[in-house]
Amino acid sequence: MESLPQASASLAWSVHKIGGTSIARYLDHIVDNIVAPRATSERLVIVCSARSLASKAKGTTSTLLEAAEKAAESRGTSQRRASDARGRDQRWRLDCFAQADPAPLRSPLLSPLHNPSGVPLDRVTSALLDRARERSTSASTRTSSASRSTSSTLSSMRNSLIDFADIQESPPSSRASLDERFDVRTAKEFGWLSDIQALQEDHFAAVRTHCQDASIAEKCLSDLSCDFDELYAVLAAVETLGFLSAQMKERIVAFGELWSTRVLTAALCSKHLDASVVRLDSLALDWDTCNADQVEERVVRAIRDELAHNSSRVLVVPGYYGPLPYALLETVGRGYSDRCASLCADALSVSCMFIWKEVAGILQANPNVAADAKVISVITRREAHELAKYGNEVINAEALKVDKSVRIKVQHVLFPDDPGTVIDGVTDEADLSSGHASRFSLSLLPNVHLITHALGSPAAVALAAEVSRGDFARAIATQSDGEAMTVWLQASPAELTRLTQAAASSKLVRDEAVTLLALTGSRDDAAAKLCVALPAIQPPPLSISMCAFPLTTLFAVRSCNAEENVRRVHAALASGGF
């Protein structure tokens, strides 16, 4: 493939959001069939999620979250670990000088105790050793006895202080292997270490597989090594302190998107595409004179400035952005990479934002449940919001916050020439229905509980207070008959126990979680679709909520019958001409 010319200011922009599973499974296809053809005529911003080979629950982000929690929960053994660490650290330094190995040396125990700056471990270690040698009276004569040299060196180490600003910024000439960085005893004590090592090996293997240029691969592996060194230091610090703030948790999670962009960028550059990583985690933002309504406006402006300063044809952007005056994971949630894509689209005033999935678009139902489900060619922004709210995993609600003038196009990552689904932000439901076929989509929302309480009772107040405390439980719908109120909550069993204990007089209508079957579609024939769908649900639904009618009707069905009812309802609607 020939090298592309440098980016021109006259080229139009396009923004693409690519999921982590697609990047992990179809990286070469993305480079050759999505990015390369478009890069000849436009400038691209590609927003990446973290890699995920198996499923979202077992992906990089979930692993990082679990590692952060493990590190914070291991505080109980930190005193014993710190004592053992000091002894190992001293023995490690003695061994280093005895061996007199000129290669960069590392201590995995050094960073959490003495490296608050985040400087890569090999540079910190080398600086520490150099300072010790300078202060040691025997350092200039390496031919002296090993005992005298190591004794004076250790003494000087104890009295030395490292100024991290003095450490050279050049990357190390060589990288130690995982076994050299962490010995067996360390691996057993840090419960999170094996998980992070597995992630490191996975990303290293991805670079070797998809990057054919040796120099580019070496540079990418060096950058990844620095990233993992920093992560090891952060997690070890969390374990030492026994504290994990919301901001630190999201900084840990943000490594996943960064690694994903490094792998993709290396693959693009190896195909002679003009690509570079643009990080948005250090935006120039001033919150001292900013109110809540101006936050996203300032973020958009800062993103525009950051992207404009890079002249590459393809800008590969990690999904994490900030710093913000609030915790991104707690406010936006794990869909922050979709929000990042919509902010980039607003910053660049693009006409269309592309979302690449492993399905052909937004379908009438999950194709794994209803095999004959068809693609919906066009839906409105409001209908897409309803789908995202009630369990459709194709579209994230954060992506829909882009300006209404921007069309959103959902396409299959393996079939980029297929039409996919267009989410129209301007046309209303009535105008869209007049020119297109009737639309409906079925989705499932699991782990929903129906809690009933008397109106105005103390239990009602307590329940509302518990739900409003955070996003651990989500209020789906409410309905009232004038005397009692039923709240539909999506919550885990543990969360449900907490709620019912807080509102002791509340009555749990069902002693098991139910699944909501959501029927979302065009307004004009909503009543007709409801009349066809309701008899198809067997056994009959436990409850029906029409709080979002005519766009959405919710049926509470038993979880064991949920997928079968999706097939029944889809077949009934399809045969009914919808």
What this model shows, in words?
Residues 68-87, 132-154 are annotated as: Disordered. With 578 residues, the chain is α/β, with parallel strands linked by helices. Among the domains are: 13-73 and 190-358, Acetylglutamate kinase-like (Carbamate kinase, 3-Layer(aba) Sandwich); 440-575, 2-Layer Sandwich (VC0802-like). The protein is 45% helix and 16% strand. It has helices at 20-25, 27-39, 60-73, 78-99, 110-114, 121-135, 146-158, 178-181, 184-189, 193-210, 214-241, 246-270, 295-308, 328-331, 336-348, 381-389, 429-435, 458-468, 493-502, 526-536, 562-575; strands at residues 12-18, 42-48, 275-277, 314-318, 352-357, 378-380, 407-412, 421-424, 440-454, 474-480, 484-490, 507-508, 514-521, 543-545, 552-558. The chain has an eight-stranded mixed beta sheet, with helices on both faces. Strands 9, 10, 11, 12, 13, 14 and 15 form a seven-stranded antiparallel beta sheet that branches. Strand 3 (275-277), helix 13 and strand 4 form a beta-alpha-beta unit. The model is unreliable at 1-7, 96-119 and 135-188 (pLDDT under 50).
**DSSP, total strands:** 15
Question: Stretches where pLDDT falls below 50 for ≥5 residues?
Answer: 1-7, 96-119, 135-188
What is the overall pLDDT average?
77
Biggest sheet character = 8 strands, mixed
State the separation between the terminal residues, measured CA to CA.
Answer: 47 Å
Q: Which architecture of the domain at 13-73 and 190-358 would the CATH scheme give at its second level? A: 3-Layer(aba) Sandwich
What's the tally of helices? 21
Report the CATH C-level class of the domain at 13-73 and 190-358: Alpha Beta
Instruction: Tell me the radius of gyration.
Output: 28 Å
- Look up the CATH topology of the domain at 13-73 and 190-358: Carbamate kinase
CATH 4th-level superfamily of the domain at 13-73 and 190-358: Acetylglutamate kinase-like
**Cα shape:** globular
> What is the SS-derived class?
alpha/beta
Give the neighbour order of strands across the main sheet. 3-4-2-1-5-7-8-6
Helical fraction equals 40-55%
* Beta-strand residue fraction: 15-25%
